[in-house]
Design brief:
about 500 residues; alpha/beta; UDP-N-acetylmuramoyl-L-alanine:D-glutamate ligase; Protein-Tyrosine Phosphatase, Chain A; 28 strands
Length: about 500
């Protein structure tokens, strides 16, 4: 079987298929390789004249079913992984073993291997990824380095926001983003790397300089099935880094990871353990932030950050460790950490006028995430802690009663409601959560309509109450069956309070 070769050229250039070079095995089912390629797409709707269409077999959609649509739109080359009957002699059809693998390789080379031209930092873990990426971004910017972010809140390139379909986009989208960063002279990119992305090869042929591990707790078991599979998917990142691996040594899986990383790059550990390379001492928590001394291989310095809670100290230590890896001066790191006011949907306090209670929005949607957020709130709460929360549909059901019990033990009032039910019956999801809630001590009520659940919490708020809206965070939508419906929780709160007034 001959080799398919891929030419290293940028989008917009004309590529001669016969000159493409690489290590990909292929078979020509129809046509020839003596044609020009103007672009690559894996979405038939985006095909333009002269493009190559790579047919990907996904979980619910198979790109092979849309080949004729791609041809109608002007595709001159189709890449498939199974025999396809195409009778159009003007189209070249190439068969490979796995189009998902090939797409990652082709995408990187097509855009000139842009990740090699960036200082690319990957952040992975169950909780804290978004906060760590933005803290690292702030440190580098304080050090006068142009820095981009890719993650749950979207991609930021030169202060321009681009929405992402996934926390970690597919390989083709990633390479386009990297290419744009190179064009705009970005030096650093800090990106969230999800377990799905690592498992589904979205980050194949991506050059990571640094990997950061935050923690690992129960999540995504609908996909990974076991925690062992979940852990092994995360481990992959730390075997492909080139400069440093940064690991939370206080986390059980972090300790294990240190012994199982086969990569020989230097290691920086962080945590509260005295054996950590970067650690926090003399920690003082308050309702206005956290004060602590950070001890590093470069020395120590006091920090007073506005972010709240122990979990944000861990996030700060991870970001500080990354700064240390790149020799950023401690006084620069200090200024950056202390200047962070907050991150959208992460322990976000909604500004309320003339109210004697508080409303916090947070993305916490796992047992560990909820426990950390509620433990932080309990440190400064003067009144009741009221939690409005649910659980996503078509996701791991095992965590639902665990979430319910944790919230019931740490809150005074639970309002169990809907949260992206997808194709599941929201009332059945609520029943799963209530099985755990009933084991705790808090009062509770179930209100399926999330907007009405929020209204109930606001209308029944008492002086000094703290109302936590958990689960949606930055999301401005809810997913019911296959429909994405606008649902901006922050605006809903403000609208309800306006009507109450």
């Amino acid at each position: 079987m001959p080799l398919l070769v891929i030419l290293v050229k940028r989008q917009g250039d004309i590529l001669e298929l016969k000159k493409l070079i690489g290590d990909i095995q292929y078979e020509v089912l129809r046509g020839n390789t003596d044609i020009d390629i103007l672009g690559i797409e894996n979405d038939s709707r985006k095909i333009k004249k002269g493009y190559m269409f790579v047919a990907i077999k996904g979980f619910s959609v198979d790109g092979h079913e849309y080949i004729h649509q791609a041809i109608d739109k002007g595709a001159v080359c189709i890449m498939v992984e199974r025999d396809i009957d195409i009778r159009d002699d003007s189209v070249t059809v190439i068969k490979v073993q796995n189009t998902l693998d090939v797409l990652a390789y082709v995408s990187s080379l097509f855009y000139g291997e842009p990740s090699k031209k960036l200082n690319l930092i990957g952040v992975t873990g169950t909780n804290g990824k978004t906060s760590v990426t933005y803290l690292v971004k702030r440190i580098f910017e304080e050090n006068s380095k142009k820095t981009s972010v890719i993650g749950t809140l979207g991609s930021i390139i030169n202060d321009k926001k681009i929405d992402n379909k996934n926390t970690t986009p597919d390989s083709l989208t990633l390479q386009r983003l990297f290419s744009r960063m190179v064009d705009e002279e970005i030096e650093f990119c800090v990106m969230e790397v999800s377990s799905h992305a690592l498992d589904l090869k979205r980050v194949e042929h991506v050059d990571y300089q640094v990997g950061i591990f935050t923690n690992l707790t129960e999540d995504h078991l609908d996909y990974h099935i076991t925690m062992e599979n979940y852990y092994k998917s995360k481990l992959k990142l730390f075997n492909i880094t080139k400069k440093y691996n940064i690991i939370n040594v206080d986390d059980t899986y972090g300790k294990r990871m240190i012994n199982e990383i086969s990569n020989n790059v230097p290691l920086i550990t962080y945590g509260f353990d005295k054996k950590s390379d970067v650690t926090a001492k003399n920690i003082l928590y308050s309702s206005s932030g956290v004060e602590f001394n950070v001890l590093t291989p470069k020395g120590s310095i006091p920090i007073h950050m506005k972010l709240l809670g122990k979990f944000n100290v861990y996030n700060a230590l991870a970001a500080i460790s990354c700064g240390i890896a790149y020799d950023v001066e401690l006084h620069v790191i200090k200024k950056a950490i202390e200047s962070m006011d907050g991150i959208k949907g992460r322990f976000e306090l909604i500004p309320l006028k003339n109210k004697d209670f508080s409303v916090i929005i947070d993305y916490a949607h796992t047992p560990d995430g909820l426990e950390k957020v509620l433990t932080t709130i309990k440190q400064f709460a003067q009144g009741r802690v009221v939690v409005v929360f649910g659980a996503g549909g078509n996701r791991d059901k095992e965590k639902r009663p665990i979430m319910g019990e944790i919230v019931s033990n740490l809150a005074d009032m639970c309002i169990v409601t809907s949260d992206n039910p997808r194709f599941e019956d929201p009332d059945r999801i609520i029943e799963d959560i209530l099985a755990g809630v009933k084991k705790g001590k808090a009062k509770y009520i179930a209100i399926t309509d999330r907007k009405e659940a929020i209204r109930y919490a606001l209308e029944n708020a008492k002086p000094k109450d703290i109302i936590l809206l958990a689960g949606k965070g930055h999301e401005t939508y809810t997913i019911i069956k296959d429909k994405v419906i606008p649902f901006n929780e922050k605006q809903i709160v403000l609208d309800i309070l306006k009507n109450i007034d």
